[in-house]
């Protein structure tokens, strides 16, 4: 039976993780949310903190009706800062969220248009958005075919014997094994699962696997 010690590509890794049924009690696309805009906010808030802290901040934002581009861009900075206190770096993150909301409105007019037309480059030019956050927004909020890789992915793939010099190289390895084996993945799932959904679930499985500390 295949295990983490003898995988040759990311398709093998997906198969090993799929066997574990890690997403049984999770949403279809793994990232929990009421809507895609909440995912965008969550992708910023989750930087350098635990997801449980992000959930508390999101609840506060929901209670203040700040979960829209318009309300967020017009939010009182002090009120916004207090609302996101649970997820840390509150002063930095509140300014960045407000600025991002304004920039999206200015450039794309509304959130649907943003999701359809935003590029990775545009996101990377925004204050406080690095590669992982940009890809989380593209993959989970905008449903684009982009796989997120993070410290969990790096650690797991390294444990399996693969080392990469950059974020892009690790991401390319993850995507390549999936893209080259789509027919087999459709067989595994029993239907033609969209590429974005495969990437979402693959990354979600990696996070859940690592959170459960299954390497030990
Ligand atoms: N680090 C994380 C997460 N851990 C997460 N979930 C658990 C559900 N999400 C959605 C994003 N980042």
UniProtKB/TrEMBL annotation:
UniProt xrefs under Pfam families: HhH-GPD
Domain named HhH-GPD: residues: 45-188
Alphabetized InterPro entries for the sequence: DNA_glycosylase, HhH-GPD_domain, HhH_base_excis_C
SUPFAM superfamilies: DNA-glycosylase
Keyword annotations: 4Fe-4S, Iron, Iron-sulfur, Metal-binding
Alphabetized Gene3D superfamilies for the sequence: Helix-hairpin-Helix base-excision DNA repair enzymes (C-terminal) (1.10.1670.10), Hypothetical protein, domain 2 (1.10.340.30)
Gene Ontology terms describing biological process: base-excision repair
GO MF term list: 4 iron, 4 sulfur cluster binding; catalytic activity; metal ion binding
Protein name: 3-methyladenine DNA glycosylase
Organism: Halarcobacter anaerophilus
Lineage start: Bacteria, Pseudomonadati, Campylobacterota, Epsilonproteobacteria, Campylobacterales
């Amino acid at each position: 039976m295949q295990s983490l010690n003898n995988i040759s590509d990311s398709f093998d890794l997906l198969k090993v993780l799929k066997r574990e049924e890690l997403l049984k009690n999770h949403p279809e696309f793994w990232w929990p949310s009421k809507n895609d805009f909440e995912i965008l906010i969550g992708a910023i808030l989750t930087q350098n903190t635990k997801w449980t802290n992000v959930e508390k901040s999101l609840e506060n934002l929901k209670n203040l009706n700040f979960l829209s581009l318009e309300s967020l861009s017009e939010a009182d900075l002090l009120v916004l800062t207090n609302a996101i206190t649970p997820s840390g770096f509150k002063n930095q993150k509140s300014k960045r969220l407000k600025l991002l909301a304004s920039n999206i409105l200015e450039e794309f007019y509304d959130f649907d248009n943003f999701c359809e037309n935003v590029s990775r480059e545009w996101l990377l030019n925004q204050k406080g958005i690095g590669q992982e956050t940009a890809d989380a927004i593209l993959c989970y909020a905008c449903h684009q075919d982009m796989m997120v890789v993070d410290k969990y992915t790096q650690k797991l793939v390294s444990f399996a014997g693969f080392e990469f010099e950059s974020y892009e190289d690790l991401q390319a390895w993850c995507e390549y094994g999936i893209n080259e084996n789509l027919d087999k993945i459709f067989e595994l799932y029993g239907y033609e699962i969209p590429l974005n959904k495969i990437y979402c679930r693959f990354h979600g499985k990696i996070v859940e696997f690592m959170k459960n500390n299954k390497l030990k």
